[in-house]
Design goal:
3 helices; alpha+beta; 3-stranded mixed sheet
Length: 152
């Protein structure tokens, strides 16, 4: 029975170290939204929204678009993608060294090696041109028609 302890201990160690990025980074991340001027409503294609400056939490695997709206300014849309992040790559490398295939699969499946880009999502909103005043359609006052004089 003592002979089986090292393989069992090794298996336990491998499973506890598996998914290094999943453990150290988690499967969700906060994405910050910033606008100039502040106070815009940032609405994502996933249905969540907040007023800038703000942040929302998303699964690292989720990609989405966000529309910034502020009265008197043109709407601005930004695409947010998921990509392999620097810290995620380090976690993946840790799996190669310590966690093995189980850790690599766990991190890839959970999305823990990914990060959102851009983050923060920052826009400068363009002010709309003021509406032109309505054209003055008043006409010059009409002169009364000349009376018709009967001839004869």
């Amino acid at each position: 029975m003592v002979r089986f302890l090292p393989p069992v201990a090794a298996s336990f160690l491998a499973f506890t170290l598996a998914g290094c990025a999943t453990v150290t980074r988690g499967t969700n991340s906060d994405v910050e939204f910033v606008s100039e001027p502040p106070g815009a409503v940032a609405t994502t294609s996933l249905g969540s929204s907040c007023t800038t400056p703000c942040s929302l939490r998303f699964s690292r695997k989720e990609e989405f678009s966000v529309v910034f709206r502020l009265a008197g300014h043109a709407d601005e849309t930004v695409e947010v993608k998921s990509r392999l992040g620097g810290a995620g790559a380090a976690g993946l490398a840790g799996n190669v060294i310590l966690g093995g295939v189980v850790g690599i699969v766990a991190d890839a499946a959970s999305g823990a090696t990914l990060e959102h880009a851009p983050n923060p999502v920052s826009v400068v909103l363009k002010k709309l041109a003021p509406a032109a005043p309505p054209a003055n359609r008043s006409r010059a006052p009409r002169r009364p028609a000349a009376p018709v004089v009967p001839q004869g």
